[in-house]
Design a protein that fits this description.
Helix content: 25-40%
Number of helices: 6
Structural class: alpha+beta
CATH architecture: Roll
Radius of gyration: 16 Å
Distance between the termini: 47 Å
CATH superfamily: Hotdog Thioesterase
């Protein structure tokens, strides 16, 4: 049986691998010093470290999304982490933990919906000015298959950026034994709101 700690360690190794040779060299010293009792919140730093680019504008956007994401206690509860941030595109992942399963042993749809909604919302936020945030006005989900495995990956994308509304989508995949299966699709509308003073 795969424990949450092993899942998290796999996530870190995979993030470093996908970050490329340069990123792996820069972060390799972290791997040998990862304490066995760390949890998802500690590993998120590595994800953000790998995501940062040489472009200052991109870094500013990533840091903005990261800061907002870290303030979500719900995402921390689910063990979710940001995997990628680009303009109009955000990927969020969450491990499949015993606490996020339904009565038949599959992933609860609440986890699927939560990370799908967040990925879609943050994809919209990447395109908005700094004095605006987003809130979900409406969003629909189609559950395509039961989900099991090691983690869920939700990829949010912007379909249409308008002055008052942002149309977004999200695809959620379950990863198991190196294979990816599409388990849900979402489409919705985000509304820009002023940042609270």
């Amino acid at each position: 049986m795969v424990t949450p700690r092993l899942i998290e360690r796999r996530l870190v190794l995979r993030v470093l691998h996908e970050g490329g040779v340069g990123a792996t060299k820069q972060a390799s010293s972290f791997i040998n010093n990862i304490p066995s009792n760390l949890h998802g919140g500690d590993f998120r730093f590595l994800t953000y470290f790998i995501t940062l680019k040489d472009d200052p504008m991109t870094n500013k956007m990533v840091e903005r999304i990261t800061r907002s994401f870290e303030s979500q206690s719900m995402m921390k509860t689910l063990g979710a982490m940001i995997h990628k941030v680009e303009k109009g595109n955000v990927i969020i992942e969450a491990p499949l933990l015993p606490s996020t399963l339904q009565q038949q042993g599959y992933v609860h749809a609440g986890l699927t919906f939560s990370i799908g909604d967040s990925a879609a919302g943050y994809s919209a936020l990447t395109l908005l000015p700094e004095d605006q945030e987003v809130m979900t006005a409406e969003i629909k989900i189609n559950l395509l298959a039961p989900a099991d495995g090691e983690l869920l990956r939700a990829e949010g994308k912007v379909v249409k950026l308008g002055k008052r509304l942002v149309v977004v989508t999200s695809e959620i995949h379950a990863l198991k034994d190196g294979q990816s299966k599409l388990i849900a699709i979402m489409q919705g509308t985000m509304i820009p709101v002023s940042v609270n003073p």
